[in-house]
Design goal:
Elements (H helix, E strand, L loop, with lengths): L11 E2 L5 H4 L18 E2 L15 E4 L2 E7 L6 E4 L14 E6 L10 E9 L2 E8 L9 H5 L6 E6 L9 E3 L7 E7 L2 E5 L9 E10 L2 E10 L13 E3 L8 E5 L8 E5 L2 E5 L9 E8 L2 E6 L2 E6 L6 E7 L16 E10 L4 H14 L8 E7 L1 H4 L9 H6 L5 E4 L7 H5 L2 H9 L3 E7 L13 H17 L3 E5 L6 H13 L6 E3 L26 H20 L4
Parallel strand pairs: 24-25, 24-26, 26-27, 27-28
Antiparallel strand pairs: 1-2, 3-4, 4-5, 6-23, 7-8, 7-9, 9-10, 9-11, 10-13, 11-12, 12-23, 13-22, 14-19, 14-23, 15-16, 15-22, 16-17, 17-18, 19-20, 20-21
Helix pairs in contact: 8-9
């Protein structure tokens, strides 16, 4: 099988103090360190269109950000950007909300969050300010009682407009202090948290045809969680007929970003949100939606008739109606920004560039790891993004896409392949990890073992035709029949992934389903410790592939 060339051969070291001492100390395919930044290389002339780069793409290394001015073959021109402000500074006077766990507006001094936590057995509501350096003062978070979470009740508006975000009473599910993105604490949702998020003030309004929404941080899943809609944004009042929603996957479980408005209630964009430290944003400008995740952009269209969108929700998986009780959002955010009447693409570019610099993002990475599967990969019963794809992604530098969905059958997994194809088109080296089939044999699904093996073989074959290096995870002891079926198919050659890994074999920590350290009492879903074990077990295979060059 022909493998895509790993991009590390196309870049050259930048002049950073630590680089000389580390350049020969580790394989170039692994993440390097440069004054605290993950990518220790500057773009060369060969960072061009042939290798998937586009004009206006960003590249961050060693505390410097470049943008692609030209991507002509072997003659790419990347220019340094002079970044003197924080991300929100570049969006102009139209910012109506800016807040999170870091300073996003230059000169802002004050509170960041109100949280409810347990100290010495007593529930308390405390205000967490920003430090002088602009990071969340986390001392009280570290002092909270063991085994308890800090729940976010308010996110303060740093823009000066007083548009603070409030958690809905009875739906306070967002935590802080559980997950870090880069070096910063994140506002985190999770499968076990339940549905909920923040309400936009009803007095807040933005132009329906000219607004910007952006999140800084990540998502722990790229697809629909709990067979529902993870919705990072809903603008407008429910039932008014002028709403806009942005959601992932939907009931199609397709993994793509969807936009919904009165013009089109389900507009599917050719974009899959990545799970790495990045900016996710939507910019409505005249009749166009520009939706972006990292360096990847897709365009949608609208004929929105409303002049303004007033109020709404941020971070919900629901609009207050029939979606409300369904699965969780998957955001892990350090910053949230909403602006009205952003007048130029250049402002948005500089917002992204400043975020890349201050949040140590590496949007230039051209390796991708895609996971296709079910609840054991999506993170069912695990709080705050602690699924194994997210945990594994912290070990290396690549773009991560978790397409797994709770309840997915092998038929649903087939429907995730178009998203995998889109990801392959924008990456140099791509790895797919396939782990699923268990749900086929639940009573309500009635899928035969023969079809399960056939579907998994089709998934593997199709991914390989897309030049994926495919890792198949063997079935757990939960379904010994399927486990044996896969063994037989592998031995007969009807199932032929590039690598098979078996974290569930005898002698391994995940072998014993009765071990409550690693398994919930349903004998099916890994605990948080089990997810860590999966990440640690799978990472060596992924790391080895990332280091390989084309022969």
């Amino acid at each position: 099988m022909k493998q895509a060339q790993f991009y590390i051969s196309l870049i050259v070291p930048c002049a950073c103090g630590l680089l000389a001492s580390i350049a020969s100390a580790a394989p170039l395919a692994l993440p390097q360190t440069c004054s605290g930044y993950d990518a220790a290389f500057a773009p060369s002339k060969r960072a061009d269109s042939l290798h998937g780069f586009k004009v206006d793409d960003l590249w961050q290394a060693c505390g410097t950000v470049w943008t692609a001015v030209s991507v002509s073959r072997n003659a790419a021109n990347w220019q340094k950007l002079q970044i003197t402000g924080l991300p929100t500074d570049y969006l102009g006077e139209g910012v109506v909300f800016s807040g999170g766990t870091t300073r996003l507006v230059s000169g802002y001094v004050g509170p960041a969050l109100d949280v409810r936590l347990s100290l010495h057995g007593q529930s308390q509501v405390v205000t967490l300010p920003l430090t002088q350096e602009g990071h969340l003062d986390s001392r009280l978070l570290q002092q909270r009682d063991a085994g308890t979470s800090a729940t976010v009740l308010k996110v303060y508006d740093q823009s000066g407009h007083g548009n603070h975000l409030l958690a809905t009473t009875g739906k306070e599910v967002v935590h802080v202090g559980e997950v870090k993105v880069g070096q910063d604490e994140a506002l985190s949702w999770g499968e076990a948290n339940g549905p909920g998020g923040f309400v936009l003030p009803s007095s807040m309004k933005v132009s329906a045809n000219n607004f910007f929404f952006g999140t800084i941080g990540g998502f722990s899943s790229s697809n629909s969680g709990h067979a529902a809609y993870p919705v990072p944004l809903l603008l407008g009042q429910g039932g008014a007929g002028h709403e806009l929603k942005v959601y992932f996957g939907g009931y199609q479980l397709d993994g793509f970003v969807h936009v919904s408005d009165p013009f089109n209630p389900d507009q599917i964009l050719n974009l899959v949100v990545n799970n790495t430290n990045s900016v996710f944003s939507i910019w409505s400008h005249k009749t166009t939606y520009s939706v972006q995740s990292g360096n990847t952009q897709s365009v949608g269209h609208t004929q929105q008739s409303a002049a303004f969108l007033q109020g709404g929700y941020i971070g919900y998986n629901a609009d207050g109606g029939q979606w409300f009780e369904q699965g969780p959002n998957t955001g892990l955010w350090t910053g949230i920004v909403l602006a009205n009447a952003v007048d130029s693409a250049h402002r948005i570019q500089m917002f992204r560039a400043s975020a890349a610099l201050h949040m140590q993002q590496t949007p230039q990475s051209k390796s991708a790891v895609v996971t296709i599967g079910d609840s054991r990969t999506e993170g069912y019963l695990v709080a705050d993004g602690q699924n194994w794809p997210w945990l594994m992604q912290q070990k290396g530098q690549y773009q991560s896409y978790n397409l797994a969905v709770s309840g997915a059958t092998s038929r649903h997994m087939l429907a995730m392949l178009p998203a995998a194809k889109t990801i392959a088109a924008q990456s140099d080296k791509h790895i797919a990890i396939v782990f699923g089939g268990f749900n086929d044999h639940l009573p309500q699904n009635k899928i035969s073992y023969t079809e399960t093996v056939h579907n998994l073989a089709q998934i593997v074959d199709t991914l390989q035709k897309m030049s994926y290096y495919v890792i198949l995870v063997s079935e757990s002891q939960t379904d010994p029949v399927l486990r044996q079926q896969l063994v037989d198919a592998l031995s007969h050659g009807s199932l032929h992934p590039n690598v098979v890994v078996d974290p569930f074999s005898q002698g391994m920590p995940l072998f014993d389903l009765h071990n409550t350290t690693y398994w919930h009492n349903d004998f099916t879903h890994p605990t948080a410790a089990g997810q860590v074990e999966l990440a640690n077990f799978l990472w060596p295979s992924v790391s080895e592939i990332l280091q390989q060059e084309r022969p």
